[in-house]
Amino acid sequence: ADVIGLNCGVGPTHILTALEKMRGATTKRLSAQPNAGLPRDVQGRQFYMCSPEYMSKFAKRFIKAGATFIGGCCGTTPQHIKLISDAVRAISPRTAKAAVKAKETAKVIDLKPADVEIVPPELRSNWSRKIARGEFVTSVEVLPPKGCDAAKTLESIKLLKTAGVDAVNIPDGPRAQTRMSAQATAILVEREIGIEAVLHYCCRDRYLLGMMSDLLGAAALGVHNLLIITGDPPKMGPFPDATAVFDIDSIGLTNMVNKLNHGLDLGNNPIGRPTAFSIGVGVNPGAINVEEEIRRFEWKVEAGAEYAITQPVYDTKQLRDFLKRVEHVRIPIVAGIFPLVSIRNAEFMHHEVPGVVVTPEILMRMRIASDRSKEAARDEGIKIARESLTEVRDLIQGVQVSAPFGNVKYALQVFDVLDELKSTGEAAAIS
Length: 431
What we know:
Layout: E1 3-8, H1 12-23, E2 29-34, E3 39-42, E4 45-48, H2 52-65, E5 67-70, H3 78-91, E6 97-99, E7 107-109, H4 126-132, E8 137-141, H5 151-163, E9 167-170, H6 182-193, E10 196-202, H7 208-220, E11 225-229, H8 250-261, E12 278-283, H9 290-303, E13 307-312, H10 316-325, E14 333-337, H11 343-352, H12 360-372, H13 374-392, E15 398-402, H14 408-430
Parallel strand pairs: 1-2, 2-5, 8-9, 8-15, 9-10, 10-11, 11-12, 12-13, 13-14, 14-15
Antiparallel strand pairs: 3-4, 6-7
């Protein structure tokens, strides 16, 4: 059989429970077509109690549980199917046909308006051009300011431009903290400093229509580099009672941005001139459930991802093993590097940042250095970051170095190792 399916039953909840168990037992495609609940007798007439809205919510859950065919059985009406279709279109990477080949970026085969000319990656931005040509890219992650005054942040970013860094990564509400809009910060960086920004864009804070409006506005204002992420839940931040939206996740958003690049909105309606976004996604080699992370990465590539940035890398073997397992959907990888500054910082990264694994050896090194002095700990953290970058240089096509506590000078010290590696390689070639 090509597809293993579930249908009928007593409603969507039981179908979802069974689907989740089946996903772990087979690699075949799965389908889910539940009843609209159990019928109830109302004055001699049978009514199915699951509304179209309720069924559409479960359609999203079926997709996340691994189903690729979604529908309904007894009690399902045309309105049920319409809302299910709308829900699936918003999150499923399979709404756009894609051909994924080893070591090739997925190329979406999709209808586009006849008068639309898609912007090739080489012409979207310098960041996109270098990635498309296989060149090594460098970036530094700088947090947006906590208030409305960006002067100090912009002043530090001037150092990055002078040093020749390719781009500045601007996180979008990391760890559910309140900061200046990442989009506004990215626009300020590009206009005031003249260095490209990679705008992190998460699904947590905006509903679907708001996302489309934001992205169209960003394109109009000249922002072309995106890193698409799902986003940290509000409970991680200082406002745990804030409402998260999550209309779609990072896979669905990747699909949506890819459509915008083809001159279409999510409903396949023409938008005129297409956007020209370089589409990046996050990837977590240290995920607790590696199988799920690989599956989501496959879907992101199929949805249109063109490059990926990893979580901070401390366990280089873990990254190497992960990349071997996704070789069949390999896209350019940019390694995340975060220079540690103290043992407290190292323990926080290991225990409280999802997906980050700081090895026992590194924890011990940071503990010994921290016992000596703050300066010794900072220097040891930079040394570890340089070592990590050296070990993974042959696996990656770029590096994103975080600036601890906004100090970009620490990040620039990590980049020095790239010059050393280049010099070593040139010397070896001459000899």
